[in-house]
Design brief:
single chain; alpha/beta; Rossmann fold; 16 helices; 13 strands
Length: 417
């Protein structure tokens, strides 16, 4: 599907959801998911019944993941503080207050695999930030959402869970329907249809970022373990046939091994069909003469995930010079899979070189930094008024000038008295 066709299709669905509400949701759910649903909200009874089927060992894993992600989110939250300073000899107050977004929507995709971690990575930081209404939406279907994903949504703190997928889910969160109140910002990864829908509703609501297929880049030297490099590349390649896996290395021996033996590694995995296409289409190996050159190439690539398989000296050098990445994995025994699932940092990260200008999802994305100011002293008032008046005249803004002039008159009145 070309870009124009994609944009037109998404726009038509969004307009229909905006104008026709629940009726459109039912029509598109039947068209795209081959399901006829009369309601979309999962009730407490339905959720409880589904969760009761989940085994205790799975619940324990999810609870532990939630705890780890929450610890890091709470650490990030402590960086955002209400602050106030006084300037102009304490005659002017400048400040900021931190306020959570009131309502957010978390889109939880459901493709080949039940993406439990996507639910946790979106809902937990929203909860820690203090968002008062957290809506989760995930595609419907037989045994969907997966019981483990559903348990994760509930335990992470979702207030409402709807079985709506794709473009229509984004439309429902952005515009609202008869049965669904709209949200103020939408988060979560998805396919090209979801991504385009988020792009088109931006402005009506906020969005987190436009994430593309998964990416991993590994910088390796002669100390690297070939098995770890190969399987770490493939771990991300199995996400999608369009996923990008890249090795940048100073070791010709490693480059040759990966190039010649990757088919062997692929054939050892059950996801081999996805991997073959992904590695063929998007896999790459770049041989550099120096670590400095490798670092420069990595900064230009600006990957979503960046792993370092380097000796200590090269690793320290790389850590100090690398600046464009979604998340950095500092040694060969800290693979991306840890972050994808449970280590604690957020796995919703910039792709398609967006790491040049933004970082990954954090608690800060669910917060607003609101500033305020107050003039409390006469000297500061007169000084600000006179300078604002002069600058407004320079800029030709008569209303601004009049507003400032009214405050300068206070000084004249005091002199008369």
């Amino acid at each position: 599907m070309d870009t124009k066709h994609l944009q037109d299709l998404v726009q038509s669905v969004l307009i229909s959801v905006r104008d026709n509400g629940d009726k459109a949701l039912r029509e598109f759910t039947k068209k795209f998911d081959n399901l006829e649903l009369q309601k979309f909200l999962l009730t407490r009874e339905e959720i409880g019944s589904r969760i009761s089927e989940l085994d205790e060992s799975t619940k324990e894993i999810i609870d532990n993941n939630i705890s780890r992600i929450k610890v890091f989110a709470e650490f990030q939250r402590r960086m955002y503080k209400d602050m106030q300073i006084e300037v102009d000899d304490e005659e002017t107050v400048l400040g900021q207050k931190i306020v959570p977004i009131n309502s957010v929507g978390i889109y939880v995709p459901s493709g080949r695999f039940p993406l439990l971690s996507s639910a946790l990575m979106g809902i937990i930081p929203a909860k820690v930030a203090g968002v008062s209404r957290i809506v989760a939406m995930t595609p419907p279907g037989k045994n969907k959402p997966d019981n483990a994903v559903l348990y994760g949504m509930v335990k992470a703190g979702a207030d409402e869970i709807y079985t709506i997928g794709g473009i229509q889910a984004i439309g429902a969160m952005a515009y609202g329907t008869e049965s669904i109140r709209p949200v103020e910002k939408i988060f979560g990864p998805g396919n090209k249809y979801v991504n385009e829908a988020k792009r088109q509703v931006f402005g009506q609501v906020g969005i987190d970022l436009l994430a593309g297929p998964s990416e991993v880049l590994i910088i390796a030297d002669e100390s690297a373990d070939t098995n770890k490099v190969a399987y770490d590349l493939l771990a991300q390649a199995e996400h999608d046939t369009a996923a990008r896996s890249c090795l940048i290395t100073t070791s010709r021996s490693l480059a040759n091994k990966i190039a010649s033996e990757m088919d062997y590694y692929i054939d050892t995995l059950e996801t081999r069909e996805i991997l073959k296409e992904s590695w063929k289409n998007k896999g790459s190996i770049l041989l550099c003469e120096t670590i400095g050159e490798a670092i420069e190439e990595a900064n230009n690539y600006a990957p979503e995930h960046l792993e370092l398989h380097l000796n200590p000296e090269n690793r320290n050098n790389a850590f100090n010079l690398l600046r464009n990445f979604g998340s950095l994995f500092l040694n060969e025994d800290t693979p991306v899979v840890f972050s994808d699932k449970l280590i604690g940092t957020n796995h919703t990260l910039p792709t398609n070189r967006a790491a040049r200008y933004t970082g990954g999802l954090s608690v800060g994305a669910f917060l607003k930094i609101l500033t305020y100011q107050e003039v409390v002293g006469r000297n500061s008032l007169y000084d600000l008024s006179e300078r604002a008046l002069k600058q407004s005249k320079i800029e030709g803004l008569a209303g601004h000038a009049k507003s400032a002039e009214l405050r300068t008159r206070l000084k004249d009145q005091e002199l008369i008295i």
